[in-house]
Amino acid sequence: MRISSKSIREHIQSRALVSLCRARIDRLSIQxxxxxxxxxxxxxxxxxxxxxxxxxxxxxxxxxxxxxGKTNRFQQQLLxxxxx
Length: 84
Hints:
Blueprint: H1 5-14, E1 17-22, E2 26-37, E3 41-48, E4 51-59, E5 65-67, H2 70-81
Antiparallel strand pairs: 1-2, 1-5, 2-3, 3-4
């Protein structure tokens, strides 16, 4: 399933912490803030273990799911409380 540009832009504008899944590559999801996208790529501020851990560039065609659920909102609030 291809993630729509509209969905990606909404997450960029909302500055929401999201989880990205790449089912064909990794069974674990990746957390981060979507910063930008093109037709082929997504730029992510990678979050690992409650730390901003650099940038990650992912191919859009590899992303099978993009979501911002309750866990993401809770973790985003923790990051905000810590000043990150």
